[in-house]
Amino acid sequence: MMRAHLLFYMFLFLVGASYGNISSSCLDCICQTESDCQNAPCKQDLGSLSCGYYQIKEAYWIDCGKPGSSWKSCAQDKSCAETCIRAYMSRYGKYCTRGRTPTCVDYGRIHNGGPKGCQRSNNKYVKKMRRHCSGILVG
Length: 139
Description:
Blueprint: H1 2-18, H2 24-35, E1 43-45, E2 48-50, H3 58-63, H4 71-75, H5 78-96, H6 104-113, H7 123-133
C-alpha cells in the first residue's frame, strides 16, 4: 500500500512538472481566500461539505485522484490538500481556459467553481481573492 502511495505521488509530481502547474504563491492566495489559511472545520456549502485549508469537497478530492487516506484527512492536511489541488489544476486548468495558460484568478475560479469555473463570472470570489492577495494576482 505504501508503495502505491509513493508511485501515485511520483506520478502527480511528474504530471505537475510537465504541465507547468499552479504556483505556490497562487496556492497561498487560494488558501487565504478560502480559510485565512487555517484548518477550517467542515461546513455545508452549496449542498455538500467543504473541509480544511482549501475548503475541499469530496467530489473535488475524487477528481484529483484521492490522495491521502481519506477525503477529510487530506483536506485537513495542507500538504495533501495542495497535492490534490495541483493534480486538479493539471487536469482542468488548460481545459477550462481552452489551452491558454491559466492565471491565478483562473485557478481560483476553477478551484471554487469546478472544471469550467474560469469560464463563469464569479465576481464575489474574485473580489475576495483580490482582497487577500492583491500582490500576486494577474488577470
